């Protein structure tokens, strides 16, 4: 990157500090024009990652008058799915300069895919390719800085109305993708707009990766509130230095204080030492975690259940341990994934679930693209409408291969 390019990106970043989401498209296009990129447009992915919608800055959803592409069946969608820089020849009405190219580049923060950037250029060389990648990286940071307080962004990435429970859950959860310190994490939740009592959480503290999934009883707003309380109590406990066992007890205590024993959550809480690969975890009445090793072996981890948190059963809490090997994938999930039934009553099932992960994540797709395809398959199996929440938290430990974390 040249000094002028660096200075230009820094000026873009500085100018964005007091900008709104609606102002970003114009700011990005103005910067791009200075760097030799024309007709620049930003498209963001919806919650389910099914479409890419142009951020125009116009209207209540900041997308009025904007084009839309499907993730599954378009060139922009291909750039998004594969996290690649793709091009097509210039054409009338798009890039009509002789020898020009139209580019599509994935907009990502680490491994979290946010959308794609479109740009036309007069040349096709490595400097312009790098300039496109640099602009996409800066665009990702700008989007992240605005989306948390932008209702326009929330509207743009929704394709249907959302219930109150889902509103709470999506504002509670961390980003659906993370990579760092030899580990990659991906998460999905369905039904995205009607989710009730499911929740996932992860966080990093030093070399420890905290992981958890929760499934509250019921499928309504109260279930969502219960899951929210459980996640908040879990975070509060671990941020005060509580152990895994102490954390689950404090979650239970908090739920009983709020609801008596009328509401409870099942869950798995785990800590992964990202340096050594040592996993410690606790089962609170939940489906047992699955470990995929060498893309061939499936291991069901075993730990005596301590009973759901909030049920006050008084069972002893057991902390289990497992030594991961480089490349191991840990699956935490809720029952809606494996118990989704087709019109004939056939469950999606654990074997199909694991086989899907193995087949699609055997080097052909990123972890996050695999999860996108998995949930599409679960929804299709259940004719597009789930009876129960379905959540997957997939963690891969690379064990010393940090350079392999991002595509």
What characteristics describe this protein?
single chain; alpha+beta; six-stranded antiparallel beta sheet
Structure notes:
Helix content is about 35%, strand content about 25%. The model has no long low-confidence stretch (mean pLDDT about 90). The protein is built from eleven helices and 17 strands. Strand 7 (about 175-180) and strand 8 form a beta hairpin. The chain is globular and about 70 Å long. It has about 400 residues and is an alpha+beta fold. It has helices at about 5-15, 25-35, 75-80, 125-145, 150-155, 165-170, 220-240, 245-260, 335-340, 350-360, 365-380; strands at about 35-45, 50-55, 70, 85-90, 100-110, 110-120, 175-180, 185-190, 200-205, 210-215, 265-275, 280-285, 290-295, 295-300, 320-325, 330-335, 390-395. The longest helix has 22 residues, at about 125-145. Helix 1 (about 5-15) runs antiparallel to helix 2. The strands form three sheets. A six-stranded antiparallel beta sheet has the order 3-2-1-6-5-4, with helices on both faces.
């Amino acid at each position: 990157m040249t000094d002028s390019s660096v200075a230009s990106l820094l000026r873009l970043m500085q100018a964005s500090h007091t900008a709104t989401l609606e102002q970003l498209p114009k700011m990005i296009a103005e910067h791009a024009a200075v760097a030799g990129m024309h007709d620049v447009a930003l498209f963001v992915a919806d919650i389910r990652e099914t479409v890419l919608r142009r951020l125009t800055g116009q209207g209540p959803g900041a997308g009025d008058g904007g084009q839309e592409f499907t993730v599954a069946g378009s060139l922009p969608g291909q750039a998004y799915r594969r996290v690649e820089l793709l091009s097509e020849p210039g054409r009338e009405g798009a890039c009509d300069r002789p020898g020009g190219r139209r580019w599509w580049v994935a907009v990502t923060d680490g491994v979290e895919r946010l959308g794609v950037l479109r740009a036309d250029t007069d040349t096709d060389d490595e400097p312009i390719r790098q300039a496109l990648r640099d602009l996409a990286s800066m665009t990702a940071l700008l989007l992240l800085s605005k989306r948390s307080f932008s209702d326009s962004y929330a509207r743009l990435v929704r394709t249907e109305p959302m219930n109150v429970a889902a509103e709470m859950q999506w504002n509670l959860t961390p980003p659906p993708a993370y990579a760092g310190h030899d580990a990659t994490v991906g998460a999905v939740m369905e039904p995205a707009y009607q989710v009730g009592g499911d929740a996932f959480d992860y966080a990093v503290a030093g070399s420890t990766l905290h992981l958890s999934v929760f499934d509250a009883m019921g499928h309504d707003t109260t279930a969502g509130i219960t899951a929210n309380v459980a996640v908040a109590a879990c975070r509060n406990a671990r941020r005060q230095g509580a152990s895994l066992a102490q954390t689950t007890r404090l979650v239970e205590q908090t739920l009983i204080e709020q609801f008596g024993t009328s509401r409870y959550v099942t869950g798995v809480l785990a800590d992964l030492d990202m340096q050594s690969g040592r996993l410690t975890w606790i089962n609170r009445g939940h489906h047992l975690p699955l470990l995929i090793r060498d893309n061939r072996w499936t291991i069901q981890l075993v730990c005596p259940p301590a009973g759901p948190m909030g049920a006050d059963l008084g069972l002893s809490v057991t902390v289990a341990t497992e030594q991961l090997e480089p490349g191991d994938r840990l699956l935490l999930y809720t029952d809606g994934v494996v118990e989704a039934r087709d019109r004939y009553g056939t469950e999606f099932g654990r074997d199909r679930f694991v086989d899907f992960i193995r087949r699609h994540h055997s080097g052909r797709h990123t972890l996050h693209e695999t999860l996108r395809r998995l949930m599409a398959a679960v929804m299709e199996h259940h004719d597009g409408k789930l009876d129960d929440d379905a959540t997957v938290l997939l963690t891969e430990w690379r064990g010393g291969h940090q350079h392999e974390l991002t595509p």
